[in-house]
């Protein structure tokens, strides 16, 4: 049984108030795989890249237990490219350039060897592609997690609604939750969205942490207060990787365990933003991760006695 | 030994997207006293009102254990009046009218019977007045807590700096912390502010919870996700009341106990916003409060085992 990760593997060029990157490795599935592979392997990666995507990047992931049989390489085409500039608040950004390239005609084919999929992580991608992957799965995975973004709500809402009806967990940020539900209150937004399909909803609030909703239950996860957020690119994907990695490791899809998985995801995201791109994710050790998770435990730990 | 609360007792007129109030009872010290008196009495109130302030409001507080010897009544003058309109996000507001009235020449005189002050809660008020109260205390209280706002940073910064150098705990919201420190990162802001005097800093983030800083330690308290925020007026004061009320009840000024006090303050603030003005604070029972605090425990509770 395995964890299947679907999403882009790509190039990014990033400008932040702190500096500017060259064309560096990015893509939702890249971040998810780097993050999740700290917790569970094998990870079966489903993506598409052009001939310009460095083979060493795939080899580094393989060395960590990421299977790349499902990563299609279109040698004569170019990889997806995104360029953006973050504002001073590091929460909002302008897209400077988007070149779909290989993503323009991505028709994912799920390899037979991926049919043992127990956990399916659908990284942010065209909803029709996410839907095609779900439909190719001969057995329903134990848990299907979906990440998406406002762009698809504006351009492919019908497809997105179709996918939403088939997933167990949805991850969006707070403004996307408001947009998707047409509700300002996040509690009301959660109710509307959970009626669209997902039984669990994770609302990511950046420096303000994350909320997990399920039926009438709610869990509030903190974000680690950081001195500097150097580059937020990929933080949401890294969060998703830590979340699904912990679930795949423990094979426990209870609400209680999802709470823990969110803490793990938040800890991973807190590393991601410390350097440009995937740099920090490639450096950290298990000891670093354990220490960071302990910081989260301390961050919210309090004793109360009602007398 | 006692808890002394300093601040305005006043009238407010409030407009929110949900409705409009008449001229209702407000003022920082009013909210603080209603909130804190659930946990510790006597509370010794230091304030000034005009002849128009209803005597029954003072009597209701007295019935809860609030001593009003230090509430000066200027029979021929009018109480402080504030009127404001909240935006849809319920986080930002426009001031429509401010009439200082009795607050214009408020020279507080600390009664001798207040000199046993163990805990001093300085509600949001002119910094020079807050300073005058500190200077009249013959013995340094065990803990001095200060609430303030952006208005004083813009109009009375020299006085505010003087007060800051004399207090133990400062409470401000996130934008005020950024303004006071000229730092965007709240972690950096906290360091700058703790160098101005306060050993403890509480940054209130509304629906995003609150942070407590002390030396290199940090605690992240959640806010209860609410379906509706009906009226945020007084939520910060109510938070302050719950915080200082718990500290005064337990007589424990450790960082660990301050964490608990912030949870108590957050629980109290979550009631305040449910109805206009002090309405909800006048209704709730100990059982309501205990149940709400339990919700906070559930909200952030998670198990993690590092293997």
Automatic annotation (TrEMBL), chains A, B:
Keywords: Kinase, Transferase. It comes from the Bacteria. Residues 3-280 form the Carbohydrate kinase PfkB domain. One of its GO terms (molecular function) is kinase activity. GO terms for cellular component: cytosol. The keyword Transmembrane helix does not apply. Gene3D superfamilies: 3.40.1190.20. This is Sugar kinase.
């Amino acid at each position: 049984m395995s964890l299947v990760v679907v999403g882009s593997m790509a190039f990014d060029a990033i400008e932040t108030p702190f500096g500017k990157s060259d064309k560096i490795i990015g893509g939702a599935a890249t971040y998810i795989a780097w993050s999740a592979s700290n917790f569970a392997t094998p990870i079966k990666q489903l993506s598409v890249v052009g001939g310009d995507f460095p083979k060493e990047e795939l080899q580094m992931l393989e060395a960590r237990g990421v299977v790349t049989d499902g990563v299609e390489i279109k040698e004569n085409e170019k990889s997806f490219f995104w360029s953006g500039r973050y504002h001073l608040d590091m929460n909002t950004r302008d897209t400077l350039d988007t070149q779909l390239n290989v993503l323009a005609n991505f028709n994912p084919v799920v390899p037979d060897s991926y049919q043992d999929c127990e956990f399916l992580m659908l990284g942010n991608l065209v909803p029709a592609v996410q839907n095609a992957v779900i439909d190719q799965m001969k057995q329903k995975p134990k848990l299907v997690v979906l990440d998406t973004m406002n762009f698809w709500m504006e351009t492919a809402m019908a497809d997105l609604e179709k996918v939403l009806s088939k997933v167990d967990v949805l991850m969006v940020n707070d403004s996307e939750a408001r947009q998707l539900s047409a509700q300002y209150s996040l509690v009301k937004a959660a109710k509307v969205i959970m009626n669209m399909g997902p039984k669990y909803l994770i609302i990511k609030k950046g420096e303000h942490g994350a909320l997990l909703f399920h039926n009438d239950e709610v869990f509030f996860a903190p974000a680690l207060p950081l001195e500097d957020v150097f580059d937020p690119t990929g933080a949401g994907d890294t969060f998703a990787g830590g979340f699904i990695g912990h679930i795949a490791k423990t094979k426990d899809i209870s609400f209680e365990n999802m709470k823990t998985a969110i803490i793990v995801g938040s800890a991973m995201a807190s590393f991601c933003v410390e350097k440009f791109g995937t740099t920090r994710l490639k450096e950290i050790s298990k000891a670093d991760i354990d220490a960071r998770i302990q910081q989260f435990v301390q961050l919210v730990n309090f004793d109360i006695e009602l007398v």
